[in-house]
Design brief:
This protein has a domain of about 250 residues: Cytochrome p450 (Orthogonal Bundle), CATH 1.10.630.10. It is about 45% helix and about 10% strand. The strands form 4 sheets. Strands 2-1-3-9-6-4 form a 6-stranded mixed β-sheet. The protein has a 3-stranded antiparallel β-sheet with strand order 5-13-10. It has a two-stranded antiparallel ribbon with strand order 7-8. It is globular, with a radius of gyration of 21 Å. The N terminus is likely disordered. GO terms for molecular function: ent-kaurene oxidase activity; heme binding; iron ion binding; oxidoreductase activity, acting on paired donors, with incorporation or reduction of molecular oxygen, NAD(P)H as one donor, and incorporation of one atom of oxygen. Belongs to the cytochrome P450 family.
Length: about 375
């Protein structure tokens, strides 16, 4: 299997050298090919590399693996993931929290309209409004429901573990969801033709009704916008290190126990062997017959296998419906000079500079 392996040593990335026996002798292994990373490191060979290897900083930030995403795949991980799916992120939980998402979208639309009415020619800081509303819905879900649930049902958890689990769900709701939505609106505001195509689809499906979650299955281009943004601007570019605790094989190479593996999600999503012109933002690629419209995991943005992201359903519901409403309500155009502001900062691909756009209300 053709895939790229890179070794990080002394702050440099070097090509891996393998001997005639195809043995990998390195400390850190970087996987940048989507087929190898997805099918082997995340699924097929999962039992051999299910342990997280965290830096000292991440150990401190997560209180030594107390979060679902950073914990080892063990009884603790299974238990806390079950808790978060039951009360916050699972399908039934999403039904219970529906009204909060609807209120959030109305609040965002109202604040955007207020800005346009007061300062129609002034570019708006999209993040400032959207992030505050996302944080609000996260606090409502966690403080009103999840905290009580953990205190009453999760008897074996320590106060420190409960604190980290609550904080994790707030991060999932308010950070990565924001990152994906902001990048999607940036791409749409930059490309008027694609924005017009999405608006036309919304008009054909919704007419004079507001975009709701019930409409999502009828709008394939909106789904394509979502998945293409996850591919090109993946909110989590690199998966936290995994530790190989027993000898295994990857793509025909022998990988000894003790190796650390980093899966480069960004590199996989930019793999030219899998994606045509990967550097371009082309939602149309996900309209091809080979992509199942109902498949939520078309890219590696949500991971794969047993550690697939627990918040994927909520992310899709919030991001897709928000994008739909934002394009339905307004025509978006980037502020002059905004197109060059693509630098990122932090563990996620959060834009270094918040997106500023000029909005024009639509007559629909």
């Amino acid at each position: 299997m053709d895939f790229i392996i890179e070794l990080m040593s002394n702050r440099r990335v070097l090509n891996a050298y393998c001997n005639e026996q195809r043995v990998i002798t390195m400390k850190v292994l970087f996987l940048t090919n989507s087929i190898c990373s997805d099918e082997l490191a995340m699924v097929t060979r999962y039992s051999s590399m299910s342990t997280r290897k965290l830096s000292k900083a991440l150990k401190i930030l997560t209180s030594d693996k107390c979060m679902v995403a950073t914990s080892d795949y063990n009884d603790f991980h299974k238990m806390v993931k079950r808790h978060v799916l039951t009360n916050v992120l699972g399908a039934n939980a999403q039904k219970r929290h529906r009204s909060q998402r609807d209120t959030m979208r109305e609040n965002v639309a109202s604040r955007l309209h207020a800005h346009v009415n007061n300062s129609p020619q002034e570019a708006i800081n999209f993040r400032e409004i959207f992030e505050s509303e996302l944080f609000g819905i996260a606090l409502k879900q966690e403080l009103n429901c999840y905290t009580d649930y953990l205190l009453s049902e999760a008897k074996t958890l320590t106060p420190e573990q409960i604190t980290m689990l609550i904080w994790e769900t707030i991060i999932q709701t308010a950070d990565t969801t924001l990152v994906t939505t902001e990048w999607a609106m940036y791409e749409l505001a930059k490309d008027q033709k694609k924005q017009d195509r999405l608006f036309e689809e919304i008009q054909n499906v919704c007419g004079t009704d507001k975009v709701t979650e019930e409409h999502l299955s009828q709008m394939p281009y909106l789904g394509a916008v979502f998945h293409e943004t996850l591919r090109k601007d993946s909110p989590v570019p690199i998966v936290p290190l995994r530790y190989v605790h027993e000898d295994t094989q990857l793509g025909g190479y022998y990988v000894p126990a003790g190796t650390e593996i980093a899966i480069n999600i960004y590199g996989c999503n930019m793999d030219k062997n899998r994606w045509e012109s990967p550097e371009e933002w082309k939602p149309e690629r996900f309209l091809e017959p080979k992509h199942d419209p109902m498949d939520l995991y078309k890219t590696m943005a949500f991971g794969a296998g047993k550690r697939v992201c627990a918040g994927s359903l909520q992310a899709m519901l919030i991001v897709c419906t928000s994008i739909g409403r934002l394009v339905q309500e307004f025509e978006w155009k980037l502020r002059q000079g905004e197109e060059e502001n693509v630098a990122t900062v932090g563990l996620t691909t959060r834009k270094l500079h918040p997106m500023h756009a000029i909005l024009k209300p639509r007559n629909w």
